[in-house]
Amino acid sequence: MEGMISVRPRKAVAELRSQRWFGRDDVRSFGHRSRAKQQGYAPADFQGKPVIAILNTWSDANTCHTHFRTRAEEVKRGVWQAGGFPLEMPVLSVGETYMKPSPMLYRNLLSMEAEEVLRANPIDGVVLMGGCDKTVPGLLMGATSMNLPAIFLPAGPMLRGNYRGQVLGSGSDAWKYWMERRAGKLDECAWREMEDGIARSPGTCMTMGTASTMACAVEALGMTLPGAASIPAVDSNHSRLASASGRRIVEMVLEDLKPRDLLTPQSFDNAIRVVMALGGSTNALIHLIAMAGRAGVPLSLVRFDELSRTTPRLGNLRPSGEYLMEDFHYAGGLRSLMSRIRDLLHLECGGVSGRTLAQELEGTAVHNDAVIATRERPLGNEGGVGVLRGNLAPDGAVIKHSAMEARLRRHAGKAIVFRDYNDLEKRLDDPALGATPDSVLVLQNAGPLGGPGMPEWGMLPIPKQLLKQGVRDMLRISDARMSGTSFGACVLHVAPESFVGGPLAFVRDGDVIELDVDERSLTLKVDDDELARRRAQWTQPAFSHPRGYGALYARHVTQANQGCDFDFLQGTAPVPEPEIH
Questions:
Q1: DSSP character at residue 121
Q2: Span 176-200, mean pLDDT?
Q3: Is 311 helix (H, G, I), strand (E, B) or coil?
Q4: Cβ atoms < 10 Å from Cβ of 104
Q5: Where are the domains of the chain?
Q6: Of 46, 82, 120, 520, which shows the fewest CB atoms inside 10 Å?
Q7: Interaxial angle between packed helices 236-255 and 68-81, expressed in degrees from 0 to 180 and rounded to the nearest 10
Q8: Which helix (H) or strand (E) holds 390?
Q9: Which H or E run contains 447?
Q10: What whole-number distance in Å separates Cα of residue 358 and Cα of residue 378?
Q11: 82-109 per-position pLDDT tens digit
Q12: Average pLDDT estimate for 527-549
């Protein structure tokens, strides 16, 4: 059955959800129809047609989504062409560039808004427009909970950066050259030239950061049209993708093809395989766990490590490799990479195209083996991310070992502990810090509650005195996240976090910490009695956001190993449809 997908019965017009608003002979429907006419629409535009929401995360404060105003019009064009009625609806734009303390704090707020906007309005299906990191899981989490037919339109990566004949990758090269600047090896003129040349167009980071990782994961889940994940934002193919997504969602409504029909344990396995084969972002683990929870699919860190151990790394993409998303797209994109791990995938899984993965992979070919490696000569024999456990991380921690110096895969050193990020900024470059290349930098109170919102602080800067000595990587441990564009021997997502009394809270200066990536172990060399004594002396800090959304977040957010979702949003319990009174 791998090459077949069941034919779904067509939904009759009278069965459309929107007809409860527009199709009745009562005073409420009179009001709904008259207000549509107020906008200049004729009954032939909206009555008896699938109503398609376009959830648009465009914002002047979201630089990745600059082109979304145009793309929304192109989606509308496709909806009209297929016989639907499009309604563009702006929702919270969760952008990485400006939002503090962390856009992760607001991912769940976007998911709630997406779900409730769909529930409260006369919507039959939805096109989800996102791209910048947290908009991808946020929109899909909300759409999955509502479970109306949905298709995702990724923003696409921006163009390559340029600097004096060199190709720059967003994030990855910013971190790289900032180290050189702090080491005194890059002057301000060169730094400003890079600033002018690293972000040249709309679109998300063109490295294999979180945005591209999640776009690829969502394509592997079957929630985008095939090939969508890597099309550059300003390529005319992206405009055609927008219109094609608009046309397809109308058909999906008539087929009643919904997210939970596609989001199965097998499709999540496919997404994990893709993340590992690409050397993708560590953030994907948190987001996929949360997304699976909304679909009623159990997913734990254990499954990520199981699949990582048996998935070769084939994507030669920064920060784990050399190339950028444009190169990946023109090498064949995600379907070409998936064709090289075909034997590891569940080919019977369906997608929004209405076809199985087996059908979508037919005839694919890789056009550049330097960008997408062969199985015979992989970049690594296992995936790019590993899950660690030990007395310092009883519920797990993660590390992107594909983007660290190999000498640190097995390492033991003495801890230098920072109580929070302000403490880090204050003391990092103090000569009295006493850091050596073997030291282990530890950051506390940077997790889901400690940050709050688990900011991307996990790529702790290397002390300036060590940079001047030529050190470019050292072991760093925190309960924070790091940008998917980042690199280095950074242990992240330590769970439970220090803010709630996880063992990370009890690390002291001079404690020896041992990492063994191959054994997947992270050990604090302090005996249980001493840890118990420290625990007894510990006092939990006060949460920094005592009111509003922050207070709701503090009461209900789960830990990193559980996806940082709200406990009351997990699962598939039904919510009654609104009464039309």
A1: S
A2: 97
A3: coil
A4: 28
A5: 49-159+201-361, 162-197, 386-537
A6: 120
A7: 40
A8: strand 386-390
A9: none
A10: 23
A11: 999 999 999 999 999 999 999 999 999 9
A12: 93
- How many other C-beta atoms lie within 10 A of the C-beta of residue 543? 15
pLDDT attached to residue 379: 98
Can you give the pLDDT at residue 5? Answer: 52
488 near 473, Cβ under 8 Å?
A: yes
- Any residues with CB less than 8 A from the CB of 221 and at least 6 apart, and which? 262, 263, 267, 268, 270, 271, 351
Taking a C-beta distance cutoff of 8 angstroms, is the pair 56, 92 a contact? Answer: no
Q: Are 36 and 46 in contact (CB under 8 A)?
A: yes
User: Quick one: pLDDT band at residue 483, thresholds 50, 70, 90?
Assistant: very high
Tokens of 197: 């040349």
Q: Is 1 a residue whose pLDDT tops 80?
A: no
- 175: tokens are 């971190």
pTM: 0.97
Q: Which residue has the tokens 């129809």?
A: 33
Distance CA 424, CA 438 (A): 18
Across 5-20, average pLDDT? 84
| Topology (CATH level 3) of domain 386-537 | Glucose Oxidase; domain 1 (3.50.30)
Backbone angles phi, psi at 38, to 5 degrees: -55, -30
- Joined together, the tokens standing for residue 533 give 């004594």
Q: How far is CA 310 from CA 276, 398, 515, 529, in A?
A: 9, 17, 21, 38
Structure tokens at 36: 């549509």
Query: Which tokens sit at 525?
Result: 């060399």
The predicted-structure confidence for 318-328, as pLDDT tens digits, reads as follows 999 999 999 99
Residue 147: predicted pLDDT: 98
Indicate the length of the chain as a whole number: 581
> What b-and-e string marks burial along 252-267, b requiring 16 or more CB atoms within 10 Å of the CB?
bbbbbbbbebbbbeeb
Give the DSSP H/E element, type plus range, for residue 56: strand 51-56
H or E element that contains 391: none
User: Torsions phi, psi of 306, nearest 5?
Assistant: -60, -45
Supply the angle between the helices 210-221 and 333-340 in degrees, to the nearest 10.
70
Q: For the chain, percent helix, then strand, then coil, each to nearest 5?
A: 40, 15, 45
The identity of residue 351, as a single letter, is G
